[in-house]
Amino acid sequence: MNIRLSPLLPVLLLFVALCLPRPVTAEPFSPHIERSAYGWIDWDAGLIYGTGRAYLDNNGQAKTKALGAAQLVAAANIVKQAAGLRLDDRRTLERLGGTFTVQLKAFLRYQEHQRQLVLNSSRPYAEVTLVTPLHGIEGLTAQLLTYLRGKPLEWQKFPLPTPSQGRSEQADAPWLVIDARNLSGSQAVQPGLFPKIASRDGRILYDVNRVYQDALQQRGMARYVHSTADLGQLMAQWDDSAWWQQLSPVATAWAAEPRSKRGRYVVARAEQATGLTRTNLVISASDAQRLQTEDAHNELLRQCRVIIVTAAPIGGIEGRRSQPQPLRF
């Protein structure tokens, strides 16, 4: 018996393949968390968390009053962490002067992350955690740039205007990954708001005056993360290949223009962290040349598509600060 296949079969196969759920490959990264007695900073998501505690016996045993006091402490602890943020390779935000530190309270926008009443303790207390963004329209970076524009004697470098016309950023554009895990201890890179990337011969590849303003405000100049993946694993990740492999040979032949493979990450290795605050990174001349070629093609630097993989400290995967004494009410 002869079986005749419908000429529409390839089209049907293509339709079914296109309806298959597209697999999502999870990023092989976990956030770099910088902790202190005041709270913590998530350098991947760009969020500052401040925790405040207030004891009921200091607030007339009134739970509502204790929660309000804890909220005030949490806000003050966010300001303390923000003041200690590394601005560039030479200074922290508090080094901008007393005026800016005072204005930080007005710049920051808080949301409540968590609240709790701990009543089964020998000394009952209320605890509140607030969070504020580094990025976005109301984020600290946008407020900081506005402040710096009014201080030409303190700061002269500003981001590029975002083009009103031209090619738009592709959602699947690759990210630059700088692997700095080989730098540890006193040589480890430190997260900063405006880091630089330079080649070994001194060429500046990445700086605050080489990125688009909208990208800087919305994304920040770099995400800081940890990872257990090696360089080969990162370089082998593709954005679409696994999905297209679901297509049958017939359906693939009928696809109009299958997308070519494109690396999800452009990977370079850090050779050195420089600057007084160790926020800058140096890469090899060959990596620098490859990076400039990639940026000319897809603007991954100007669009702030940068991930810095930091060394995990012994005993954990989180960055740490010295532990000052927290406020208590």
TrEMBL record:
Record key words, sorted: Signal
Top-rank lineage group of the source organism: Bacteria
Signal peptide span: 1-26
Designated name of the protein: LPP20 lipoprotein
